Structure formats: structure tokens, C-alpha cells
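Weekly sync notes, structure subgroup
Attendees: PM, AL, DS (notes)

Item 1: joint prediction request from the bench team. They want all two components modeled as one assembly rather than separately. Inputs as received:
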Amino acid sequence: MSDAVQVIKSEILRRSQEEAERIISETEEKARHIVSAAEMTADEVLAKSIKPEISVMRKRILGSARLEGRKLLLQAKSEVVSRVFELVKERLSRIAEGKDPGYNYEELLFQLLSEAAQKFEEKRLMVTSNEQTLSYLRKNLRGIEERVRDALESEISLEVENSPYNCVGGVVVSNPNRTKVFYNCLEGRLLRLREILTGKVGEILFS
Amino acid sequence: MNVDELIEQERKATKMVEDAEAKSEKIISEAREKAKEIVSKVTKKEFLEARLKEEEAKAEAEAEEIKRRYAADAAKIRLTPVERIQKAISLVLEEVLPQFE
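Output from the run, pasted for the record:
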């Protein structure tokens, strides 16, 4: 075989190989396009059939999880807030027992009594409280009465009831026929203010 | 020059291109078949149900993660520092106890 023939044969082979490779390459590209177009069509079909259903299902499942999560947070916050109020109640007990050096219970008692007496038009008032406070009131009634009179500029007379009232501390004041009663007990004051203070307490604790 | 040899080579070359074209037709035919299958699959009940289950499982897994994060936040809340609790106690005591004039 001559070299010239060999060169022409190689050229024929090279050109035909190039042509075959071009055909396959273009075809593969076209095939990819066909599949990709089908996938897009399938997506459109899905969008019209189950995608709205999937979206609703996801919203339901994730929404429920978020709601459950928020309940957990609220529960945890509520527990901490309740703990604060429980600790305050314990502290009030210690204050009323005279075991808290930061507070003078006798002075607080005078303030609570004056505050309660102010609510009455009557001059003769009945006072009760827990055993310990009643005992203190009985021993110091005249002096306390005098201070209340001075503070309110009124001729009020105080009588200590025989039956104690179950409370942490503070006083329950009534008119003699008990048609009007003012509860100025420490835990009662706490209870009345709890709802109002919960927001502020929450701010301090969690902000 | 050996013309027969060249004719033979040309014949082989033509065959090579024809083979490529045949292969090309097969590739296109397979692609069309696959495309048809892809589109037809998404309309089948079993596929749709399987897809829904798959999406549901995905959403459930995401939901678990959300709940886990909230639970971690709740645990942190329960560990509120003592200083803040003391501050809150002081505020409540200040409001509950009568103020001296």
C-alpha cells in the first residue's frame, strides 16, 4: 500500500469518526432536552394535582409543631412566673413571722391596718388576723389605735376579734355588724396584684 | 493508487456514520420513552400516594426539629438566672407591701 493511499484512508476514517461523534453528541443533548422537558411537564402536572395537597399538609404538620412548641414556651414561662409568686408568698410568710431583716412587720401591719380603716365610715372597727398577729395586736392595741387615729385624724376605736383568720399576715377589718369587711391580708394583696404584675414580672424574667 | 482500497474505506466510513445515526435514533427513542414514563408516572395513583407519604415524612421530620428547638428554648427559660428571679421578687414585694409615707 502506498503512503498516499494510507493518508487518504486515514483522512476518510478521521472524518467519519468526527461525523459519528458529532451525531451522537448532538443526539445526547437532544435526549437530555427531551427528558428535562418531560420533567418540567411532570412538575406542572404535580403542581396541578398533589402540590396544593402537599402544601396544605405541610402547613398543618408544621403549624401544629409550632403551636405545640409555643405551648411549651408558655408553659415554661408560666412555671417560672408561678415560682416567683410562690417565692414571694414564702417571703411574705417570713416577713410576717419577723424573720426577714429587710422588713419591719409591725410597721407594715400598722400601714395595712390604717389602709383598711380608711375604707370605713364607722369609727368602731373589728380587727382579726392570724394567731401570731392577733397576739401582737392584743398586746399593743392601744398604741396602734393611737397611731391610726393620728394618721387618719379620726377617733377610731379598734377591737381585736377572738377568732383568728387563716392568713399569712396582714389584717381583716370589719364594721361591728360585719356588713362591710375589708381583707387586707398579705396573700390577698398578692392575689389581687398577681394578674397586673404578671406582665412586668415576665418582662424582668424573659426580656 | 488502489481505488478498491479507498472504496472499501469509504464504505466503512459510511457504515460508521450509519451506525451512529442508528444509535442516535435509539437514544432519541429511549429518551422519548423515558419522557413518556416520567409524565405518565406522575398521574398514577401509587406514585401520587408514595409522593404524598414521602412529603409527609419530610414534614414530620421538620416538625420534630421545630419541636426540639422549642423544647430547648423552654429548658433555657426554666433555667432563668437567680438574679432575675430576685429582681422580679423585689418588684412584686414593692407592689404588694404598703409603702411607708
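Discussion: The mean pLDDT of chain A is 94.
Action: AL to compare against the crosslinking data before next sync.
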